[in-house]
Each structure stands twice: as structure tokens, then as C-alpha cells.
Fold this protein.
Amino acid sequence: MTMKMMQRKGKTNVKNSKKKLATLSELFSFSTTETRTRPFLIVGLTSALISGCVYPAMAFFFARVFQDLSADASDRDTFMDGIRRMAYAFMILG
């Protein structure tokens, strides 16, 4: 195979690989036949959004833990209140 033939073959693969993608309305048009499908989609999307928000929230609270641990521990009650709040926050976030 010559170099020109190889280049032509590579170009045709790129041209053939560009296919039209379905739009969102076309994608969700398959769920209109059954009314039971939409609630599952809504629950799934909501769960995915909540799951995606948990990790940035955990990063924020993890940074706060280091602030609370590096704080002045002379007032034991205030120190333990900060630690307790962070423990509850991590328990809620999972």
C-alpha cells in the first residue's frame, strides 16, 4: 500500500465516523408509549443529580474538619461541638 492510499483510507474513515446523533426529544420519544417509564426516568435523573452533588459537598466538609482540628482546643466544649457537627454532616452525606 502506498502512502497516498493509506492517507485516503484514513480520511474516508474520518468521514464515515461522523454520524448524526439523536436529539434529546428523539431519545425520549421511546418512553412515551409507556407511562410507567417517565417516573423512573425522573427518579433516576434526580438521584444522579444528588449523587453528583455529594462529592463536592464532602470536599467542603472535609476541609472544614481540618479547620476544626487545627483550631484552638483550649475550650473543649466548642472544639467537640465542631467535631460533632462534622460527624453528623458526614453521616448525612453517606
